[in-house]
């Protein structure tokens, strides 16, 4: 209230720095003109009030007061030297945010000069808005405004044209914009300056206002929302809010009980003069509330429909009705109940990855308990409880009002938790309901960490939930470590198996390649052998078909040919001069040099004999009486 500091972490830090001396911490953030507030830990109490009621006498002000956090001091001749106080400003302009840090001795004009350099906007064109004390001029000293350490401002430039943007990017730009919501709390007449991005929803705004005002969302009565803001799930960008600043007013909606009390106060005189038979008394149901709700009693006889049907075949259908009836009685702000069987809730909470596991909270409802209405409306529907349960628990519910449903749950309880837990629940009296069971899953069994009865408070319920969460977190860390080690071992095994598989594939591929190579070599060898055999057969056939070699003393003309092979060897033979040239070709082929692969060349003159007509005689091709020829492989 004095410092304007609303951040709890910042307040705790300041208190720790001052050894939890409240007055010293306040002195550290509020500038004083004539000195400092005196801490109750001071050695001497000075006279003359600096804070507090001015009607106190000097003697009375010298004594410490247990009802006030402030002590009285006199303007001292020895002014305490103070370090300059630094102020942080977060300034928004369209889609930009600029952080400015200044001493409290600076002026508003100094902020504008810094923004002029950052935003490239003339200081004379700026309107700096967001001051809690109203509009200020450039010469105003920041110290005189008594500002908190952290402040949020925004810049308006009505004389400058807005930046042009395409229609396709308009929505995205509005989602990225920051809206300043000035929310006035009607009952205490206090304003809150809240910054939200365009992508935030109206529901998020209402939940943040709940943290500031302690007014639950379902009891908030708003003024100032645009007509287009019809759904709490809408984002601020599309809700029609004024940019960059919009004013709203919130108050607490009157409850039916308050309405009844006000009506009764107005009608007191009428009741006093009415007849004793009570005929003139109005029925409480005309005010929208029954006797059970007025006194925190939930009577099943006054309910229009049960929370859960009796002998429901499907647990999921029963929980759907339970959730709908719970919402109709206590509002939409309640824990998100798991729809499904208890076994499915176990599966969801306990049997995923260790990092994803949660505690299981089982809510056991009983309409005939005097604690049920208060527990549901004031504790189970408290937004802090709802938020904590949604983050850390799977919540499952069951109605124990009907005997058949009670027996069914006890059977499930015996099967999943054992007879001891079932007997504990069986012995609970009706007025001890509702019950809240906190279950933690373990490797071998499910452990009941806590059984919370209905006669508790929000703080106690939150503490017991947090205590269970601490136990679960320790076990979860062990499970995560074990799971990580197991996954690491499995990864190593998978890598080894994969390496072995790749090695086997490589060996098989190598073996198959070798087999293919050997098969190819064998095939080529077979072809070579067949070709050699074919050549040999041709050679033998040609050799047998050659005419006999004439003798030297033959009376016919004989031509003697000397043939040189590519390897340098020579072979000679005599032919009749009248023999055809084909006979020479056959002779050469019979020696393994077919004329299709080799050519027969003459020396003088050099000529290719294989190009001559094979039907001509040796005499006609001038290979008579003798000639030296050599073989050369064709290209």
UniProtKB/TrEMBL annotation:
InterPro entries: FAF1-like_UBX (IPR033043), FAF1_2-like_UAS (IPR049483), FAF1_UBA (IPR044541), Thioredoxin-like_sf (IPR036249), UAS (IPR006577), Ubiquitin-like_domsf (IPR029071), UBX_dom (IPR001012), UBX_domain-protein (IPR050730)
Domain named UBX: residues: 554-631
Region annotation Disordered: where it falls in the sequence: 476-496, 540-560
Pfam families in the cross-refs: FAF1 (PF21021), UBA_4 (PF14555), UBX (PF00789)
Gene3D superfamilies: DNA helicase RuvA subunit, C-terminal domain, Glutaredoxin, Phosphatidylinositol 3-kinase Catalytic Subunit, Chain A, domain 1
Biased segments, Basic and acidic residues type: 486-496
A GO term from the CC aspect: nucleus
Entry protein name: FAF1 factor
Organism this protein belongs to: Cnemophilus loriae
């Amino acid at each position: 209230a004095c410092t304007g500091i609303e951040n709890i972490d910042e307040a705790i830090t300041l208190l720790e720095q001052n050894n939890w001396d409240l007055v010293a911490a306040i002195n550290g953030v509020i500038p004083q003109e004539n000195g400092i507030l005196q801490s109750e830990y001071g050695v001497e109490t000075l006279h003359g009030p600096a804070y507090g009621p001015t009607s106190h006498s000097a003697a009375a002000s010298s004594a410490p007061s247990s009802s006030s956090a402030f002590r009285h001091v006199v303007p001292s001749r020895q002014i305490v030297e103070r370090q300059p106080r630094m102020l942080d400003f977060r300034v928004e302009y369209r889609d930009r945010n600029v952080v400015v840090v200044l001493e409290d001795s600076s002026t508003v004009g100094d902020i504008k000069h810094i923004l002029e350099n950052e935003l490239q906007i003339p200081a004379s064109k700026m309107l700096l808005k967001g001051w809690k004390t109203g509009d200020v001029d450039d010469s105003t000293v920041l110290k005189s405004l008594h500002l908190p350490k952290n402040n949020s401002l925004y810049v308006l430039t009505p004389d400058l044209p807005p930046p042009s943007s395409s229609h396709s990017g308009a929505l995205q730009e509005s989602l990225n914009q920051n809206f300043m919501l000035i929310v006035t709390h009607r009952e205490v007449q206090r304003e809150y300056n809240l910054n939200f991005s365009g992508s935030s929803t109206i529901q998020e705004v209402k939940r943040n206002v709940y943290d500031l005002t302690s007014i639950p969302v379902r009891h908030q009565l708003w003024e100032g929302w645009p007509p287009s803001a019809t759904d709490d799930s809408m984002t601020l960008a599309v809700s029609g809010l004024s940019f960059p600043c919009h004013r709203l007013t919130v108050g607490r909606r009157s409850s039916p009980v308050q309405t009844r009390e006000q009506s009764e106060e107005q009608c007191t005189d009428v009741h006093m003069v009415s007849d004793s038979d009570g005929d003139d008394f109005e029925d409480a149901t005309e005010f929208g509330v029954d006797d059970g709700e007025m006194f925190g009693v939930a009577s099943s006889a006054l309910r229009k429909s049960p929370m859960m049907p009796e002998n429901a075949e499907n647990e999921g259908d029963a929980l759907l009705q339970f959730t709908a009836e719970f919402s109709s009685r206590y509002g939409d702000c309640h824990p998100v109940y798991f729809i499904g069987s208890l076994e499915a809730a176990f599966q969801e909470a306990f049997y995923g990855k260790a990092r994803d596991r949660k505690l299981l909270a089982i809510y056991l409802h009983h309409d005939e308990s005097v604690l049920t209405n208060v527990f549901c409306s004031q504790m189970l529907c408290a937004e802090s409880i709802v938020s904590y349960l949604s983050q850390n628990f799977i919540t499952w519910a069951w109605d124990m009002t009907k005997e058949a449903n009670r027996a069914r749950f006890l059977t499930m309880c015996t099967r999943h938790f054992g007879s001891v837990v079932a007997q504990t629940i069986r012995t609970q009296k009706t007025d001890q309901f509702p019950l809240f069971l906190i279950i933690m899953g373990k490797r071998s069994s499910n452990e009941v960490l806590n059984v919370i009865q209905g006669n508790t408070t929000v703080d106690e319920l939150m503490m017991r939930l947090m205590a269970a969460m601490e136990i679960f977190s320790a076990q979860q860390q062990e499970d995560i470590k074990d799971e990580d080690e197991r996954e690491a071992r499995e990864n190593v095994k998978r890598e080894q198996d994969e390496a072995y598989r790749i090695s086997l594939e490589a060996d098989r591929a190598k073996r198959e390649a070798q087999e293919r190579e050997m098969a190819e070599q064998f095939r080529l060898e077979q072809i070579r052998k067949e070709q050699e055999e074919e050549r040999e057969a041709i050679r033998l056939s040609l050799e047998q078909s050659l005419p006999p070699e004439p003798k030297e003393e033959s009376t016919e003309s004989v031509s003697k040919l000397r043939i040189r092979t590519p390897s340098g060897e020579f072979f000679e033979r005599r032919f009749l001069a009248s023999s055809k040239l084909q006979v020479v070709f056959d002779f050469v082929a019979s020696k393994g040099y077919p004329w299709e692969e080799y050519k027969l060349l003459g020396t003088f003159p050099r000529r290719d004999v294989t190009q001559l007509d094979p039907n001509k005689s040796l005499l006609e091709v001038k290979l008579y009486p003798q000639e030296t020829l050599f073989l050369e492989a064709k290209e």
